[in-house]
Amino acid sequence: MDIKALQIEARSAVKKAQNTNDLEEVRVVYLGRKNGKVITLLRSLKDMSLTERRQVGPKANTLRHELEELIKRRGNELQEKNAAMNVDVTRPGDKVRVGHLHPLTQIEREVRDIFTSLNFSVLEGPEIESDYYNFDALNIPPNHPARDMWDTFWLKQPSIKKDKSLLRTHTSPMQIRYMETHKPPFQIIVPGRVFRYEATDAHHEVNFYQVEGLMVGEHVTLANFKYIVETFLQQLFDGDVQFRFRPSYFPFVEPGIEVDIKLPKEHHRQGGTWLEVMGAGMVHRNIFNAVRYDPREVQGFAFGMGLDRLAMIKYNIPDIRLFYSGDLRFVRQF
Ligand code: DAH
Predict the structure, then answer these.
(1) CA-CA to 283 of 20 to 30 Å: which in 4, 55, 190, 197?
(2) Are residues 80 and 128 located together in one domain of the fold?
(3) Do the beta carbons of residue 8 and residue 15 sit within 8 Å?
(4) Is 98 a catalytic residue?
(5) Residue 51 domain boundaries
């Protein structure tokens, strides 16, 4: 047989092999010890004349080595292809890392859920306020010493505007905004971000979160407030909480009170001592006057609490700055 033709045929046969079985067949056809075409050719050398042998011998040997090499390479190729296609469908999938809610968002949602279940509506207000809503309408006139309680970020002002703008220092302005556009009876909460121009430390941040509450109707009293607060605190702290009212002063309520809670020592870093968590009181008549409600016809209670503080107490967080640090080692613990 013509060696050249044999070489072409063998090369293409190797190339066409689609799996290791095909390839083994090709090997047997050309290099098989019994009848392999190339092997037979080599064996027939001994019957050839010397000149013929000198001519054919080297070519046949080269072909043999070439084929061995080609078959080996094709074998590796087929094995690699096989591994790529060999998918283990029983293997567990790669875990997709999903993010989760920040602890402050979590506690805000808990608070929303509890108050919604008590038939409160949830609304939000602007973070940029005027001094009218943040102070004056809340019975805190210019020069009133109570303005000291809310160290304020004032915003630069175009001179034509007579109301000064600021970053709200509390969520209470939404009491006014809501009452200006709604009629009692109603009950609302207003979660939101507030700002204070303060030096930061473990308990102070320049911005933090509050939830404001307001319930107004013909006969709404502090007794109603007591029930609402009790239900709220019991749910938020899974029934494991004591609370008390203490007289206090806020310009927009009369009488004003503060709510303290006490948690069991075993589960809470700050357990066993009274902790102040909320300001509250009966809405001051000057507030009703500011929104043109008649104080002889309606009454109600208001309250305001710090969400950061609640979260710190509930989750034993020692430093308020951790909430805003962007440190995932902190966030992932919740
Ligand atoms: N706005 C007060 C503060 O930021 C909290 C507060 C106290 C809100 C008494 C109220 C209230 O609605 O009745 O400190």
Answers:
(1) 197
(2) no
(3) no
(4) no
(5) 3-85
